[in-house]
Amino acid sequence: MANPRGGLRFRELRPEPRRLWIRFRPRVWPGAPGVWIDLAALALGRPGGGEPGPPAEAEVERLDDVVYLPPAADGAEGWRRRLAERLLAGGTPCLWQSVTPGPAPAGAAVVWDPTETLLDGGVEILAQAPRGASVLWPWVAGLTDAEDLWRPALDRLRGAGAERVLPLRLELPPRDRRRLAARARSADWSALFHRAARPLEGFARAAASRGLDILWPRPLPAAPARLVVTRGAAGHLAQIADLELALGGSEVVAQSFFRAARRLEEEPHDLKALLREGNLAILTWLEDDPRQAVEEFLRRGGSVALESRRARFGGDGGATG
Predict the structure, then answer these.
(1) Is the peptide bond before 15 cis (omega within 30 degrees of 0)?
(2) Taking a C-beta distance cutoff of 8 angstroms, is the pair 86, 108 a contact?
(3) Who's near 240: CB < 8 A, 6+ residues apart?
(4) What is residue 2's predicted lDDT score, i.e. its pLDDT?
(5) Which of 14, 113, 229, 306 has the most C-beta neighbours closer than 10 Å?
(6) Partner residues linked to 98 by β-bridges
(7) Residue 63: what pLDDT?
(8) What is the pLDDT of residue 315?
(9) Is there a contact between 316 and 212 (Cβ–Cβ < 8 Å)?
(10) pLDDT digits (tens, 9 = 90+) for 232-272
C-alpha cells in the first residue's frame, strides 16, 4: 500500500568510501526481512515499513549522485526495480544491494550482502557468487573477524570468480549487537560487546593474494563530463585519506586529503581544462600532496599516493576503511 504521507523522499549524506559513496538514502523504506547491512548507517538494516509512493519529479531531479536502494521486502522488489530503472535512465548512479545472488537493473552498481548466512558460520554460499561480483563482508568483532572464517570464505570467492570483497567496519548500537548475539549460531559474546574488531591488514593481504580487490570505485553520473571528472578526482583523494587512516598513518595527512576532497566536490571549474591550460594553481586551497595526486589522476587516472598505500595495506587489492 502506498504511503499516505506522499512519495518517497531522500536524505542527503556526505559521500565517503567507507559508506560506498552513498549521497542519497531513502527516508522511508520497505526493508527486507532478515539480517542485512544498512550501508548508509553502517549498522543493521530494519525490515518492514510501508511501500512509499514514487518520488516526485522535483525530488528525482535533485538526485545527481549515488542513490542507495537497500534490499526490499518481496512485495516491494518490483517497485524497487522500477525506481532504479527510472533513476538510471536519467543518468543517476544507483547502488543496488541484494541479499541473494540474482539479476539487477542494467547499469546499477551492485553489491551482494551474505550477512544472514555468515551469521550461521557458513561460507559455502559464497561459492555461488556471480563471476565479477562485489560481495560485502561485515567486519564485526567476535563474529566475522576470525581468520578461520574469512580465509575459507575468500577461497570460495576466488573460486567463483568474484571481483571484490568489501570489508565494512560496522558502527553497531547495543540493540544491533544484541540482535546479532541472538541470531548468530556461534558468537564470542565477550568480543562482540567488549572488543574492537581486529585490524584489517591480514584480510586485505589474503584478499589481494587471491586476486580480490577490496577498494570500491566511486559510481559516477552519466554526465556532464566536467562533473564526472570532478567527482572522480574528489573520490580519489578521499580514498587516499581513508587508506592513510586504515594504515594507522598521520591524522594530519589524512585530513588534508579529506579537506581537498570536500572542496573538490563543490568545485565549479573544469579540472581537465585547468590542467591543459596550466592553470591548476588557481585552486589556491589545494595543498601540495593533494595537488600532486589530483594532477596525476587527471593525467592517468591514478596516483602514486593511492597506489603506494594500496600496496602497503594489502598488495594490489587495496582496502576500504
Answers:
(1) no
(2) no
(3) 257, 293, 303, 305, 306, 309
(4) 41
(5) 113
(6) 112
(7) 95
(8) 62
(9) no
(10) 999 999 999 999 998 999 999 999 999 999 999 999 999 99
Please report the pLDDT score of residue 121 as a whole number.
79
Residue 192 corresponds to which cell in the numbers above? 562482540
266 vs 246, 269, 271, CA distance in Å? 26, 9, 12
Nearest partner of 206 among 320, 321, 313, judged by Cα: 313
Give the whole-angstrom CA distance, residue 94 versus residue 145.
29
The pLDDT, as a whole number, for residue 185 is 76
Among 316, 62, 99, 91, CA closest to 220: 91
Q: Spell out the SS3 assignment of the chain.
A: CCCCCCECCEEECCCCHHHCCCCEEECCCCECCCCCEECCCCEECCCECCCCECCCHHHHHCCCCCEEECCECHHHHHHHHHHHHHHHHCCCCEEEEECCCCCCCCCCEEEECCHHHHCCCCCHHHHHCCCCCEEEEEECCCCCCCHHHHHHHHHHHHHHCCCEEEEEECCCCHHHHHHHHHHCCCCCHHHHHHCCCCCCHHHHHHHHHCCCECCCCCCCCCCCHHHHHHHHHHHHHHHHHHHHHHCCCCHHHHHHHHHHHHHHHCCCCCHHHHHHCCCHHHCCCCCHHHHHHHHHHHHHCCCHHHHHHHHHHHCECCCCC
198/241 Cα distance (integer angstroms): 20
Residues of the chain with pLDDT under 50: 1-4, 316-321
Handedness of CA 264, 269, 275, 280 (dihedral sign): negative
Quick one: cell of 49?
A: 515499513
Q: Amino acid letter at 255?
A: Q
Quote the pLDDT of residue 155: 98
What pLDDT is recorded for position 54?
86
Shortest CA distance to 240 belongs to which of 227, 252, 229, 253? 253
Q: What is the largest CA-CA distance in the chain?
A: 61
**Parallel, antiparallel, or unpaired: how do β-strands 67-69 and 94-98 relate?**
parallel
